[in-house]
Amino acid sequence: MGDLGPRRRQRLLERGLTTLRRVPAVVIPYRGDAKRRVSSPIRAAVAVAMLGDVVEAALAVGRVVVVTDDRAVVPISAEVVPDPGAGLGPAVAAALAHVDGHALVVNADLPAATPASLLALAAAGLALVEAHDGSTNALSLPDPRRFAPLYGAGSAARFRAHAPFATAAIPELQADVDADGDLEQIGLPLGPRTRALLAVPA
To answer: Total domain count for the chain?
Structure first.
């Protein structure tokens, strides 16, 4: 339990990179009305680009399951589970019902996500990545049955109260996009789709 410092994170990453045969499934929830708080005229395109970048990073480490109400925007290399339409928690639960063994749950608005950051999270065991506002950007679930639908404001604390989640300090998975300006403030390399989109004048 507790924060995973840089040295422990590096050790966990090295361990993860040597165990590629045992990579987890990666569940990515995505709603077609994503990023309502981003008022940019390219809001929808940004959301789809970020989803594509997260899926690409996840495919490098394991099976990918996207739970969504908008199948058309999901890269063809990912599996799709229909979103039951009852909120984020039930959507994730619906996807996890199709997963046996270790699963990661990774939000679709993490454009700096990389295979190495996902492996580091997987190697941390039962762990979560807390967003700067106290919500939850990603979960590592060695046993998916430990999941509970606790998302929303302050959810990281609720997950830690529910089970002994470690808090994994992984910058690439902490950098989410909720509002205008967040992309410019990330300060980390962005995925290729998001980077290409931002290079095009609005």
So the answer is: 1
Which of the four pLDDT bands, split at 50, 70 and 90, describes residue 11? Answer: low
Domain assignment of residue 132, given as a range: 3-198
Spatial separation of the C-alpha atoms in residues 80 and 17, rounded to whole Å: 27
pLDDT digits (tens, 9 = 90+) for 154-163: 999 999 999 9
Task: Give the bridge partners for 67, in sequence order.
Answer: 29, 81
pTM of the model: 0.85
Return contacts of 12-15, CB within 8 angstroms, 24+ apart: 12/120, 12/123, 12/124, 13/116, 13/119, 13/120, 13/123, 15/123
**Both tokens assigned to 127:** 């762990």
CA distance 104 to 168: 13
As to burial, measured by CB atoms within 10 angstroms (0-12 exposed, 13-18 middle, 19+ buried), residue 116 is: middle
**Centroid of chain to Cα 67:** 12
37: CATH:
3.90.550.10
Q: What are the percentages of helix, strand and coil residues in the chain, rounded to 5?
A: 40, 15, 45
Most distant CA atoms of the chain, gap in Å: 46
